[in-house]
Amino acid sequence: MESQFRLNDHQKQVLEKLGIKTDTDLLFYFPARYGRELPTRLINELKAGEEATVYGQVTASKTSRAWKKKIPLGEITLEDQSGRIKAVWFHQAFLAKKVPVGQPARLSGKVTERKGEKYFANPEIEPASTANGSTESLFVQDDVGEIPLVPIYPETYGLSSNWFHHTIRKLLNTRCLTELIDPLPKEILTKYHLPILTTALIWIHAPKNLKDAEAARKRFAFEEVFFIQLARLRAKVEYQKSGATAVTLTQTNLDNFIARFPFPLTKAQQKAIAQITTDLAGNKPMTRLLEGDVGSGKTAVATATAFAVVQAGFEVAYMAPTEILARQHFESFINYFKHLPVAVGLITGSECRKFPSKINPNESTHISRPQLLKWVANGEIPILIGTHALIQQAVKFKNLAYVIIDEQHRFGVMQRAKLARKNNEKAPHLLSMTATPIPRTLALTIYGDLDLSLLDEMPVGRRPIKTEIVSEAKREQAYQHIREELKNGRQAYVICPRINEPDPDKELALNVKSAKAEQKRLAEIIFPEFSVGLIHSKMLPKDKDQTMKDFAAKKIDILVATSVIEVGVNVPNATIIIIEGAERFGLAQLHQLRGRVWRSNHQAYCYLFTTSDHNGNRGSTLGTLKVEPRLRALQTAKNGFELAELDLQLRGSGQLFGAKQWGLSDVGMEAIRNLKMVEAARFEAQTMLAIDSELNNHPLIKNKLTAKETLMHFE
């Protein structure tokens, strides 16, 4: 890292892992939140019940277990010139090791008294050394001005919030701010009352009040969404420049094809098919997102529109994120197309298949990869389904006109682009599909280049899932009902928040179940008469695939899993799902997990096991959440879209399911709660590109947009 500060090798390595290579990069490492500065006291001045900060030297440190060795306990002794005081951490023994004995430390928290002895209970602890070795308070007046708010930065790899605070405050006092050029045009800043770049940086790192901090965060949130919109919209313009193959639709043939479906289409499915076929008939490549709950019928829409393309004489590529899903879609397409002279191919990392087989026209058969590639290249296999193997250079099509991407958020921009460029002359039409319910503002941001089709209805005859919130007192009662369902031949999922039990000496020992321990408990104690399997993200892909095959074949009655099962194989016989520690999941994620058992007309059940008490309290270490009202929404909301919006309001953007996967920073996610801001950023991006499509009149914006860091951000 190029810096005017002296950094040791560890600090340089940590900062580089965060993408911080220059002093300017460090300026854009923003606080996660703000706290009020506590008064600094000498130890002998402390009073029971007050909140204060003390500085001193750690003279003793130990970890142990309290109350029959169930609760990990950490303890240190801190001394200053006036006296000594103990600090105790319950459930967080590792914090006692944060500052070694003999080193200066800063304690902040509430002073408690027991049997006449004062101590800090679960305080914040930081190394108190500053860059020059002093142990004075880091929150003193300097040239930037007095700040009643203390910025709290995300801590990582041993760099504390105080380290970031101290270093960035020193940086603000240099001339570095004067060297920065604001990429946002003055007219946009004025129009939306946004502070200029230098002011925003001071306000976000050293706010005089909460209003200034909020104004700065608003500016950077707007800027991030604005540049995402520019990138998405420019990509769409570039994609559509090459034109597309217009697919001539024979409506009668399509109607006859759909008439063979074993179920009537919902109005939402009919509308989506009409929107897609209209796009397919155009000479500009379609870029559309099909969003719908698990079980809402996205595959039927994809199949019907794929038929329209094939019957017009062109090819279709369908990409799924896993081999399990690719094989599942391969079987689905066979069922839909088996009455027609249409070949369907499958390509994954482990196998290639073709339907129909020459030996048995009712089944598929294994074929060699070279043979499959040959038939795809000459158009003999017009529908090819696969995983990432589809984007290999060796895969070539005769005239690819339609690309379908399932669970599209699990593929990077570059992966999607490689598949979409398989047609060398014209760009194929692109349909992305997702079962992830996301708020409208997030969809407008991350899918700004896609037109949206919603499947907000469920197929006729599908029974609503019976969802119950189960307290510890009613756990055995729930187990009894589950046992009866299993005896009737049904199967069950059990979802746990984590894979392994926590190490109490290294991390917070929360009351959450781990998948490995729960699988053993269920198999040996609760359901010994049934087969209990295990699947989690750390398993090898082939082992996960085999486990899911065994579950689908009913060799496993109960499958214990982490949320890796969220996007998984279709097992209609699985009608029960237990979600342990349900309060720790977002509503949208809970809804998607619950959708695993919404695959048939059998009555399905979802049990939300919660470790919270009646009021939703989870202990002082995690704070207080009104858990029960939030979980109750799962029993009343009409669909996943409604739940996603509710989750956004109840938990906030930082807790939104999958937030990190969208490539947005924490500040950018804050904008997602503000529809007007997202729409304003989108409008300004559209207006700018309409007037200056190449951004030649906006060189600063063009340079930032094409910079390596920005491109990496969008991949």
Mind explaining what this structure looks like?
It is a single chain. Helix 6 crosses helix 21, helix 7 crosses helix 9 (298-311) and helix 13 (440-446) packs parallel to helix 21. The strands form 4 sheets. Strands 13-12-11-14-10-15-16-9-17 form a 9-stranded mixed β-sheet, with helices on both faces. Mean pLDDT is 83; it is low at 130-147, 504-509, 613-625, 653-659 and 708-715. It is an alpha/beta fold. Strand 2 (51-66) and strand 3 (71-80) form a beta hairpin. It has 4 domains: 9-180, Beta Barrel (OB fold (Dihydrolipoamide Acetyltransferase, E2P)), CATH 2.40.50; 197-241 and 669-714, no CATH class; 251-281 and 297-434, P-loop containing nucleotide triphosphate hydrolases (Rossmann fold), CATH 3.40.50; 466-638, Rossmann fold (3-Layer(aba) Sandwich), CATH 3.40.50. It is built from 23 helices and 23 strands.
Structure at a glance:
The protein is an alpha/beta fold.
List keywords for this structure.
single chain, 715 residues, alpha/beta, OB fold (Dihydrolipoamide Acetyltransferase, E2P), Rossmann fold, 4 domains, nine-stranded mixed sheet, six-stranded parallel sheet, 23 helices, disordered C terminus
